[in-house]
TrEMBL record:
UniProt xrefs under InterPro entries: MTMR12-like_C, MTMR12_PTP, Myotubularin, Myotubularin-like_Pase_dom, PH-like_dom_sf, Prot-tyrosine_phosphatase-like
SUPFAM superfamilies: (Phosphotyrosine protein) phosphatases II, PH domain-like
GO annotations of cellular component type: membrane; sarcomere; sarcoplasmic reticulum
Residue ranges of every copy of the Myotubularin phosphatase domain listed in the record: 205-589
Subunit structure: Heterodimer with lipid phosphatase MTM1. Heterodimer with lipid phosphatase MTMR2.
GO BP: any one term: phosphatidylinositol dephosphorylation
Cellular localization per UniProt: Cytoplasm, Myofibril, Sarcomere; Sarcoplasmic reticulum
CDD domains: PTP-MTMR12
Taxonomic lineage: Eukaryota, Metazoa, Chordata, Craniata, Vertebrata
Keyword tRNA processing: no
Name of the protein this chain belongs to: Myotubularin-related protein 12
Species for this entry: Panthera leo (Lion)
Predominant cellular place of this UniProt entry's protein: cytoplasm
């Protein structure tokens, strides 16, 4: 299930407290080689996971130290992940709470999460692929979750270097067969351990009963019906076994043209209007147009959905009037490069042109356009009382994105954790989004992934960021959900359709929500990453978004009217879409960059301090009530406040105060302010230390 198996599985555990780790320089490894090779570090394997190759005496560089120091250990590659086993692991204690994934360790990279591999030859960085004639002295791995790893192989045995580098390149870049994915090995080995959480109520939409329940919940059962004509995928392998269509639609029409041209129900509004989607009919090869039979069929469909009780239907063609998949792919390809930072020097070198690069990527503008399109659909349903029919070639990319956003905005149930999981299951998994192809899990082409699902998550993050009380989940939930796209033990995000999954996949492999696939999305400096960074950069952010394609009059009136009233968090929810309101999802994109942290600051640290103070006040009050004449003895206990909160950073829960970032190579006007932030954190530490004396 998404909530427990994927999202809940990532957090809530004890993680390593920043301890006194012994960093070494590359030249120091040579003198300590004997000690390194004798050190035994345990590799923890999942059920069905097999070790493929390994290399000893590898140095993992500290990223913010300009690759001058690091931790030595062993680099291994399995059929599931690349893992670095450092000698510092045993020195860490579990004295401080931090986010920790239960499946992937801090130094683990799943094979599907590898984006690019680089080698350094004589100080020159080159992309690695295929068979190598010469092997690098340094290995750099860029990950799809935006982590960057640097490994020094200078003191590793030559044969081990060849095996580990060749193994990593082959198992992360070579084309794969679906049946060779690790999730099948894991399912076979772990099937006796699989368990379903009985408290989980995520609707899977894999039975007729589930669809009937959704119709009843949205009061759409009068005009629409759930059908089982595709049971066994007899009509179309692209559609789910069960779906909902307008009640007057003849059942024989559903079998024509392999499910194309059928208006599928997505959701019903409180006023009786509905959101529908439809895939385009295949065009005739000879004249690249529709045949007479197809035109007659479509005429009949439109007459059915235009006559009472359906009244007016507005058609929204997303294939021609909206974004293209190429737009999304190109924008994200540029956008992600802003966060794949090799070292501190590179971070500060790009600082001067960072905002111009962000603007040129167009990623934030694409987010704004998606939110604007969802507002347009919402206005039709809510204000104009008309049905909306979304059109797309296969109705499995932009239809999934827009229909899901509309439901998040209009239906408070979709803003609960279980409701959101059910929405993903209904619109993306049963809706046939091609996660296998869009995420390029099989590496069948040289093309980059098309992160449609990530784009959806980024749009949802904008709403969560702007209206946090309206949601039953936090941004951390969304961040871990995006990470789960690349963890091949959940079947949710590794298939192109329910038919493909059912054909090759045993049911117990899926966790309760995870029965389909997903894509990624992004954003920027959130309020909890703000204060300093917002002061430094906030004045320029308003220049980033082009305000072209303004709202038309009716939409502007609807938009302004809603924002002029107090927000009902249990009703309709609209985002602000003006330029400066669309932000970068800081937690997801900046979490691995030490320089982006606000040490001892951010929303998480503030809330932690308040909770600690409340608990302390309650505890003192209890003792005062029990010993009314002993108040003086209690004062010595007060300095325990702020002990944990001083250790938090603005990118919690993915980062604690593990280290201080390097000073910038290039001076910036705001560096003095950042120094003040560090001083504040240090003063808090001093306060705690004095209290312990």
């Amino acid at each position: 299930m998404l909530g427990k198996g994927v999202v809940g599985g990532g957090g809530g555990t004890k993680a390593p407290k920043p301890s006194f780790v012994s960093y070494v320089r590359p030249e120091e490894i040579h003198t300590n080689e004997k000690e390194v090779t004798e050190k035994e570090v345990t590799l923890h394997l999942l059920p069905g996971e097999q070790l493929l190759c390994e290399a000893s005496t590898v140095l993992k560089y500290v990223q913010e130290d300009s690759c001058q120091r690091g931790i030595y250990g062993k680099l291994v590659c399995t059929d599931f992940k690349i893992a670095f086993l450092g000698d510092d692991d045993s020195a860490l204690d579990n004295d401080e709470t931090q986010f920790k994934n239960k499946v992937i360790g801090e130094n683990d990279i799943t094979l599907h999460c590898v984006d690019q591999i680089y080698g350094v030859f004589d100080e020159k960085k080159k992309t690695l692929f295929g068979q190598l004639k010469k092997y690098p002295e340094k290995l750099i791995i860029h990950c799809k979750d935006l982590r960057v790893f640097h490994f020094c192989l200078r003191y590793t045995k030559e044969e081990e270097v060849k095996r580990i580098v060749s193994g990593i390149i082959h198992h992360t870049q070579a084309p794969k067969l679906l049946k060779r994915l690790f999730l099948f090995s894991y399912a076979a080995a772990a099937q006796n351990h699989a368990a379903t959480d009985p408290r989980n109520h995520t609707v899977m939409f894999d039975t007729l009963k589930d669809w009937c329940w959704e119709l009843e919940r949205t009061k759409g059962s009068v005009k629409y019906k759930a059908v089982s004509v595709n049971e066994g995928y007899k009509v179309c392998e692209r559609l789910p076994a069960y779906f909902v269509v307008p009640t007057p639609l003849p059942e024989e029409d559903l079998s024509r043209f392999q499910g194309h041209g059928i208006p599928l129900w997505c959701w019903s509004c409180h006023n009786g209007c509905a959101l529908l989607k439809m895939s385009a009919l295949p065009k005739k090869e000879q004249d690249d147009g529709l045949s007479q039979m197809q035109k007659s069929f479509l005429d009949g469909i439109y007459k059915t959905i235009h006559r009472p009780p359906y009244e007016i239907v507005k058609t929204e063609d997303l294939s021609s009037n909206f974004l293209s998949l190429q737009d999304i792919q190109t924008a994200y390809s540029k956008f992600k490069q802003l966060f794949l930072i090799d070292n501190s020097t590179e971070f500060w070198d790009t600082d001067i042109k960072w905002f111009s690069l962000l603007e040129s990527s167009s990623w934030l503008d694409i987010i704004r356009r998606c939110l604007k399109k969802a507002i347009e659909i919402t206005e039709c349903l809510e204000a104009q009382n008309v049905n909306v029919l979304l059109l797309e070639e296969n109705a499995s990319d932009l239809c999934c994105l827009v229909s899901s956003l509309v439901q998040v905005m209009m239906d408070p149930h979709c803003r609960t954790r279980i409701g959101f999981q059910s929405l993903v299951q209904k619109e993306w998994i049963m809706g046939g989004h091609s996660f296998l192809d869009r995420c390029n899990h099989l590496r069948q082409s040289d093309k980059e992934e098309v992160p449609v699902f990530l784009l959806f998550l980024d749009c949802v993050w904008q709403l969560v960021h702007q209206h946090p009380p309206a949601f039953d989940f936090t941004e951390t939930y969304l961040t871990v959900l995006s990470d789960s796209l690349y963890i091949p033990i959940f079947s949710t995000f590794f298939f192109n359709s329910p038919h493909q999954k059912d054909n090759v996949h045993q049911r117990q492999l899926s966790l309760p929500l995870t029965q389909s696939k997903s894509s990624p999305k992004r954003g920027f400096f959130r309020e909890e990453t703000d204060h300093l960074i917002k002061n430094l950069l906030g004045k320029r952010i308003s220049k980033l978004i082009n305000s072209s394609d303004e709202l038309h009059d009716n939409l502007r009136e609807f938009y302004d009217s809603w924002h002029s009233k107090p927000t009902d968090y249990h009703g309709l929810l609209l985002p602000h879409i003006e330029g400066p309101e669309i932000k970068v999802w800081a937690q997801r994109y900046l979490r691995w960059i030490p320089e982006a942290q606000i040490l001892g600051g951010g929303r998480a640290a503030t809330v932690s301090k308040l909770l600690e103070m409340m608990e302390e006040v309650e505890r003192l009050q209890e003792k005062i009530d029990a010993r009314p004449h002993g108040q003086g003895a209690l004062l010595a206990e007060a300095p325990l406040l702020l002990r944990g909160s001083a250790r938090l950073s603005a990118l919690f829960p993915f980062a604690l105060l593990q280290r201080h970032p390097s000073k910038p190579v290039l001076p910036t006007s705001g560096w003095k302010a950042l120094g003040d932030e560090e001083d504040l954190a240090k003063r808090e530490d001093e306060f705690v230390d004095l209290g312990d004396v």
